[in-house]
Design brief:
The complex is a heterodimer of chains A (145) and B (147). Chain A is an alpha+beta fold. Chain A has one domain (13-141): Hotdog Thioesterase (Thiol Ester Dehydrase, Chain A, Roll), CATH 3.10.129. Chain A has helices spanning 28-38, 48-53, 63-78; strands at residues 16-17, 83-90, 100-112, 115-126, 131-141. The model of chain A has no long low-confidence stretch (mean pLDDT 95). Chain B is elongated, with a radius of gyration of 17 Å. Chain B starts with 9 loop residues before the first strand and ends in a 6-residue tail after the last strand. Chain B has 1 helix and 5 strands; from the N terminus they run βαββββ. Chain B has a 5-stranded antiparallel sheet, with no helix packed on it. With 147 residues, chain B is mainly beta. Chain B has a domain at 4-18 and 58-141: Thiol Ester Dehydrase, Chain A (Roll). Classes of the chains: A alpha+beta (145), B mainly beta (147). The A-B interface holds A 1, 3, 23, 30, 33-34, 36-40, 63-65, 67-69, 71-72, 74-76, 80-81, 83-90 and B 22, 25-34, 36, 43, 45-47, 50-54, 77-85, 88, 136, 138. β2 of chain A pairs antiparallel with β2 of chain B.
Chain lengths: 145, 147
């Protein structure tokens, strides 16, 4: 995979990224693997009996699973080590079988000290159009200069 | 209702070692195959410190627990998470953390009732005494359903 990240000159305020590859066939295995990696073993994310017992159709993903996958798209875009701020709010449940698609929009381009920075908004939506996660990003980008 | 006087309350602190194998495992869990996470001095992915859940502080480090603050944990959800990256975190680092309740606010819910947002801010400091990360956890306590 191409790991050449975006440069400051490549982006303008208002630019939208809509061609990130969707993650298809979200599965219980994704949630179980994230539970093990993070240490978050809330049964709502791996035990259907518990999730259905409180009215959900099935288990659903950790908010921080979606946030982590989103952060991976972000670091592929701006480069590992260039993220200055990253924030998320959880809006909907991510269910097994869903396809998750992330997009980004550059909202601001500016200098901060000697860094070239961008602010962006981020969003993750499932294949039914439900917003799963909203996010914000501040990144310092390399210059071509 | 959550008493706004809980702002400033110190929560339990903790410590964790940033392990190379855990970074690989975390990277795989967020579907990230970037080779940088599979090398010896791997950096921590942006949300890696969630794995501090594996490093319980035993007795809780002397700080308050959420239940001590008058929260009803059955009505508390994780609403959001924010990170401010102040320095590098790499495999081999030892981090200590301290958390404080930084904000309490209320909002009327769409279906009636009041939602209370509680923000806990955790500062992570490395083995050289440098603050490397601020992580804010935003919790929401919903009122009893006005159905």
């Amino acid at each position: 995979m191409d790991r050449v990240n975006v440069h400051f000159e490549d982006l303008q305020e208002g630019d939208e990224i809509t061609d990130w590859a969707p993650i298809e066939k979200i599965s219980r295995s994704h949630f179980v693997r994230y539970a093990g990696a993070s240490g978050d073993f809330n049964p709502m994310h791996h035990d259907d009996t518990v999730a259905q017992g409180v009215g959900y159709p099935s288990v659903f993903g950790h908010g921080m699973f979606s946030a982590g996958v989103l952060s991976h798209y972000v670091t592929d875009w701006v480069g590992v080590g260039n993220v200055r701020k990253f924030g998320v709010s959880f809006r909907g449940q991510l269910y097994p079988g869903a396809t998750l698609t992330f997009t980004a929009k550059v909202t601001k381009k500016y200098k901060e000290g000697d860094e070239n920075r961008i602010d962006a908004t981020l969003q993750g939506v499932d294949d039914k159009g439900t917003v799963i996660i909203n996010g914000t990003l501040t990144a310092a980008l390399p210059s071509r200069g | 209702m959550v008493d706004k006087s809980i702002v400033g309350t110190e929560m339990g602190g903790g410590s964790m070692v940033v392990e190379r194998g855990k970074i690989m495992e975390f990277a795989r869990a967020i579907l990230d195959e970037n080779p940088v996470y599979f090398q010896e001095d791997a950096p921590a992915p942006p949300t890696f410190t969630m794995a501090s859940a594996h490093w319980p502080s035993g007795t809780g480090g002397g700080g308050a627990k959420l239940a001590d603050l008058g929260l009803d944990l059955l009505r508390v959800l994780h609403a959001g998470q924010e990170y401010e990256y102040l320095g590098e975190i790499k495999a081999g680092d030892s981090l200590t953390s301290r958390a404080v309740i930084s904000e309490v606010s209320e909002k009327e819910g769409k279906r009636g009732g009041t939602m209370t947002f509680i923000t806990s801010e955790t500062t992570f400091t490395n083995q050289r005494g440098e603050d490397v990360l601020k992580a804010r956890t935003i919790l929401v306590q919903t009122s009893k359903a006005a159905s």
